[in-house]
Specification:
The chain has one domain. The protein is 39% helix and 6% strand. The protein contains 3 helices and 2 strands. It has a two-stranded parallel sheet with strand order 1-2. The mean pLDDT is 78.
Length: 96
């Protein structure tokens, strides 16, 4: 069931891609969250009067292929939409 849900979200996401979208492909733990914070702060400075950007803002506004609703409108004009394309890191040695 979980696999089917992820596959459906990925397929929906692929159909919602736009020509102006910018992909942010990376390996887990390679700094993509840091880069998404950087872009979120640029958006904040140019469109939100320097509002403080937290993880909730980044997670809600910087989509991830297969996890986010890419059909959701992009409400910012200063930067194109950036889409993260990797799965979250899992420390396998911590799993019993």
């Amino acid at each position: 069931m979980l696999f089917t849900k992820r596959l459906l979200m990925s397929m929906t996401g692929l159909s919602a891609l736009r020509e102006e979208d910018i992909w942010l492909p990376s390996f887990p733990r390679a700094g993509s969250t840091w880069v998404r914070f950087l872009f979120s702060n640029l958006i904040s400075l140019s469109e939100l009067d320097g509002q403080i950007v937290g993880y909730k803002f980044v997670a809600g506004n910087m989509p991830s292929l297969g996890r986010s609703n890419l059909l959701k409108p992009w409400n910012f004009e200063s930067l194109p939409r950036f889409i993260k394309t990797h799965r979250p890191h899992i420390d396998f040695y911590l799993i019993p």
